[in-house]
Amino acid sequence: MTNSFKDKLGQGGYGGVYKGKLQDGCFVAVKVLKESKGNVEEFLNEVAIISRTSHVNIVTLMGFCFEESKRALIYEFMPNGSLEKFIYKENPLIADRQLGWETLYKIAVGIARGLEYLHRGCNTRILHFDIKPHNILLDENFCPKISDFGLARICPGEESVISMLGARGTVGYMAPEVFCRNFGGVSHKSDIYNYGMMVLEMVGGRKNFDVSVDCVSEIYFPHWIYKRIELDEELGLQGLISKEDEEIAKKMIIVSLWCIQTDPSSRPSISKVVDMLEGSLDSLQISPKPFLSSPPRTTVDSSTATMSL
């Protein structure tokens, strides 16, 4: 299928991803997990959960291999790869890959619709727990698809809060209640926080927490952009060339700032997020200022990890 793994698409902490071709000519992405006896639960979890899904904004699992220590997942092939390749200014290829604001907006709406399906469209609610640019894949038309369900959890029945022994997700995107229960219960609102942090990175073209910037006030992007919105100042963002672009950026920012509220009950549902994004800018109110800053990024946040408390 992969011609002896000749065409490598990417590498992560889990293993490598290779381009393959089925006998009917259909291209696939084969995610080969590192050979070990660990993470079997995560692998089986991903197969079990994603096989329940069918949505235009959720990546399609076409098959899998589970033979002793050998494990692989076979997905539909996404020609444009993952979202992070297109949004961070430090990426040397960004000059060739800069996405317009209309495209960024459509991607944000598509991801929200995928999350809405997971939260409300399945027969059981699915919580993803790791929404971030690396886990959003783009097809040839830049239609976004949520991928990587290794940390996902099924929420039985109508329960909104679930019990969880440890924190799960990626540093910099995790909701505060996921790593500290004093902030509230873990629920579908934790995915909303992930989503908000990701969209702010799409808007800013940078990591939300960045110690390399010149001005101290810019280190934590959500606080910096909140002040700009609050004072109705120029946004100072790259690529704003029209009034329509500026309206799109403001809408994405205001919605994202609601999503990253510290109190889970203050965050909108994902259906409300879709309504806000697709509604008028004039109908949106500015949220209270999110008072938490992102924890400093470390080398472990480049890959998904489950952390014990």
Automatic annotation (TrEMBL):
Region (Disordered): 289-309
GO molecular function, one term: ATP binding
Entry keywords, A to Z: ATP-binding, Glycoprotein, Kinase, Membrane, Nucleotide-binding, Serine/threonine-protein kinase, Signal, Transferase, Transmembrane, Transmembrane helix
Compositionally biased spans, kind Polar residues: 295-309
Superkingdom, taxonomy of origin: Eukaryota
UniProt feature coiled coil, ranges: none
Subcellular location: Membrane
Ranges of residues in domain Protein kinase: 3-292
PROSITE patterns assigned to the protein according to its UniProt record, in alphabetical order: PROTEIN_KINASE_ATP, PROTEIN_KINASE_DOM, PROTEIN_KINASE_ST
Topology class, membrane: Single-pass type I membrane protein
Pfam families reported in the protein's UniProt record: Pkinase
InterPro entries: Kinase-like_dom_sf (IPR011009), LRK10/LRL21-25-like (IPR045874), Prot_kinase_dom (IPR000719), Protein_kinase_ATP_BS (IPR017441), Ser/Thr_kinase_AS (IPR008271)
Binding site for ATP: 31
Cellular component, GO annotation: membrane
Keyword DNA repair: no
Family statement: Belongs to the protein kinase superfamily.
Name under which the protein is recorded: Protein kinase domain-containing protein
Name of the encoding gene: LOC115982762
